[in-house]
C-alpha cells in the first residue's frame, strides 16, 4: 500500500485530484469508480474547477459509484444519485448515460445488484476506484465483518454508519437501514484503488486499515491485498500510524517516489 501523507486536508485533496486528473488526461475513456461522503465534496470541487479552468474533460469517461441507499429514488434529495449530480456530474462534461449508480429503488435489489456487476464487467472493469473510509473501517457500505470475497449486494447498515449519515436526513429513524454496495472483492478487482481520508476522526480506522491485521472486521484492511492501492491522508488522519516516519521517508511530502 502506498501511503502518502500530506500536510493539510487541502493538499491531500489536490494530491488525489492530481492522480485522477493525470489518469483521465492520459486515458480519456477511463472507467472511474466513484465515492460519496463529506470527504469527497472538496475533491469534486477541485475536479470541477480543473474542468472549468484547465481543460480537464470527462467527456469520454465512464463511472460507477460504490453504493446507493435502498428505498431512495434517484431524485430523492438524500440519494447518492442526487449527491453525484450536484457535486460532480452536472458541473463537468461527463456523458450522463455513462454514469452509473446502483438503483436504490429497484423492484428487486438482488437482481439490480447482480446487474450492476454485469455492467461493470461489460465496461471492461474499473480502472481507478476512488474510496473513502468510514470511522468503523468500512469501504463502500461494506460494514465490519463483510466478506472479503463479497460482490455487489444488499448490506444492512450499522447503527454507527446510520448515526454518521443522520446529518443528511431529518432524523435517525429516517436514515436508511439498507444499501446496495459493491462488494470488497468487486473493489479489489479495480486495476487501481485510491483511498482518501482526512481529519482526526478517521485516524483509528486508517491505522487499522494500513497497519492492522488483514481482517473482515476492518473491511478497508482488504486493500492490503491490492497491489496498486494508494492511500492519501492529511496529517490528522495519519496520527494513529506507527510507521509514519517510514512513509515520509519513502514518499516525502506525499510525493510518489523518493527520487522524484
Ligand atoms: P465521509 O464518509 O467522507 O462522509 O466521512 C466516508 C465513508 O463513510 O466512506
Description:
- The protein has a single domain (2-235, 243-254), classed as Rossmann fold.
- The protein has a seven-stranded parallel sheet with strand order 1-10-9-6-2-3-5. Strands 4-8-7 form a three-stranded antiparallel sheet.
- It has eight helices and ten strands.
- Helix 1 (9-26) packs across helix 2.
- The protein starts with a strand and ends in a 10-residue tail after the last helix.
- With 260 residues, the protein is an alpha/beta fold.
- The structure holds 2-phosphoglycolic acid.
- Residues 37-39, 132-134 line the site of 2-phosphoglycolic acid.
Structural class: alpha/beta
End-to-end C-alpha gap? 18 Å
- Compute the number of strand runs: 10
Q: What's the CATH topology name?
A: Rossmann fold
Q: Which hetero compounds are present in the coordinates?
A: 2-phosphoglycolic acid
Order of helices and strands: EHEHEEHEHEEHEHEHEH
The total domain count is 1
Please report the first level of CATH classification, the CATH class. Answer: Alpha Beta
Identify the strand order in the major beta sheet.
1-10-9-6-2-3-5
Instruction: Return the average pLDDT rounded to an integer.
Output: 97
Which regions are unreliable across 5 or more consecutive residues at pLDDT < 50?
none
How many alpha or pi helices?
Answer: 8
State Rg: 17 Å
Query: How can the largest sheet be summarized?
Result: 7 strands, parallel
